[in-house]
Design goal:
With about 350 residues, the chain is an alpha/beta fold. It is built from 16 helices and 7 strands.
Amino acid sequence: MAPPAGWLEHAFALVHGEDGDGRREAVAAWKRKHVDPEWEDFSLTTCSEGCPWPEVMAALQEAAPLGAEVRTVIVPAADNLFSRRRGGPKDKKSDLPEAVVALLQHPPQGVKLLLVAWATVPGGPGNPLGSKPWTEWTKAGRILKVGALEPAEIPTFLREEARRLGLDLQAEAAEMLKERLGGNAGLIKRAMEVFDLASERRVISPRLVEVMTYRLTDQRVFAWSEAWQKGQLAQALRILKECQEDDFEKSSLMLVGQAAREVGRVASLTLALSSGLKLESELAQAIQLPPNQAWLLGRSYLPVATRMGLPRARRLLGEVVQCERDIKGTALSRSPTPLADLTFRLWREWGR
């Protein structure tokens, strides 16, 4: 799904959310719009992952090279830039330095900035996107969310994807897909592409969903994450091996995407707890848990987030990001090492 044209026009912009495919498409489209390929090596600065605001400001203050019109800065993993200091007041502009606030409110000429957050940055009162200057960015259309679909949006999205591929999606099959795939737009797209290849009659029936979702690796992806969350390392490694033997590239990306969602939720929850949120409804909203999954808060996420704490959660999220980069870098060699190492790390962190 192409990012909105209005968002692409902005030289200062933010994209956030758990949909890795949507995030990559948005970043690529924004770069095509704002970065001259001839000058990219000289005029584009990509900040380090998890970098602080001073590093971003320093990159923006660098002079554009002779012959280039603008200096462009991309922050590829900016989740930490939206955190609050422990115990800080909720209405304090997300604890942004005054120089940063001034720059974000009045972007200067000659520089461009794209912030990329892997998790959904929460909005509303008391949340990072609920205060200035981010509320002004929202009104101006500078912020693009590519996170999980809301429960009410999933059926429409399923129908649109089926219609796009010329498939007849039966109502019961749509309900089954909603339950099994959740609101991950990227996963839904990949599922529909598999149905497009597998359905000779061009009809997605409940029986076809029952048969194909396992082969889509989706069920085993959840079984993999459930295994390391329950401390079953051998089981998790066995499932990992089966998934990669079936379809190395797709399954690897799906597995690391599942890890990013789980770790991202824990990281967001630790951030919400550190900002003073206590009500279960507020915490569930902070990590984008749909109503039918709210029970997972106390059973799965809250104990881990309380035990892990914000610094460890951030480090673990950074390791998931690095794993995805490693997977893409070793795609030709089909190395199982990055995900095997991540599986061990996740098993250890969840079991502490």
